[in-house]
């Protein structure tokens, strides 16, 4: 899926682009509102992330032009302003969601995925399956090969995140943001400890080991 990032701050744009590319999205960057509008009118995108404070054409005007042109793609508004008035203004102009800076990448990714599911009319799954590992999201029960696995709340969240990204390598930083809601790097071994406890319950009693360490990057559930 293609995502347009309209952001004049190169560091923020690189941060978003890198994270989304690692999550399987194709990203295109526009450094100002006018460039963003031209790209949206001439190219096909599944979603746009638009900053409000942009040169040449501000984000709200850009969104207004996009909606006036009949384009219905989901748009997430980014802004350093966190007031209720700013949020209302962004949504009234045609934004589908609003995220105040600074933000964690995990939250941005979750909002993007939710908007894309809504746009494609895809229902949220009630269970996750990876091989013989089954997670019931409603009852909060986990089984492997029919055997119940008792998990603590954070262990459940960690496994859920790995299962939602099964087959993909997820970084330690992304896990910290998503499961422990840390949006900064830390020298703590909290992720390693969580993975160890999860392996003791999900992998150790079974012949096939599912949780794989990718040295120098993170972990994957195979």
Strand order of the largest sheet: 2-1-3-4-5
Average pLDDT over all residues? 87
Strand tally: 12
Structural class: alpha/beta
Tally of helical segments:
8
What's the main sheet like? 5 strands, parallel
What radius of gyration results from the CA coordinates?
20 Å
Pick out the low-confidence regions.
Answer: none
Shape: elongated
Give the topology string: H per helix, E per strand.
EHEHEHEHEHEEEEHEHHEE
End-to-end CA span: 23 Å
Helix content: 40-55%
Beta-strand residue percentage? 15-25%
Short description:
Helices cover 41% and strands 23% of the residues. The two termini are 23 Å apart.
Task: Describe this entry's structure for a reader.
This protein has 222 residues and is α/β, with parallel strands linked by helices. It has helices spanning 10-22, 33-42, 59-68, 84-92, 105-119, 153-164, 172-179, 190-202, and strands spanning 2-6, 26-30, 47-51, 75-79, 97-100, 127-130, 133-136, 141-144, 147-149, 169-171, 211-214, 218-221. A five-stranded parallel beta sheet has the order 2-1-3-4-5, with helices on both faces. The protein has a four-stranded antiparallel beta sheet with strand order 6-7-8-9, covered by helices on one side. Strands 10-12-11 form a three-stranded antiparallel beta sheet. Helix 4 links the parallel strand 4 (75-79) and strand 5. The longest helix is centred in the middle third of the chain and has 15 residues, at 105-119. The protein is elongated. The mean pLDDT is 87.
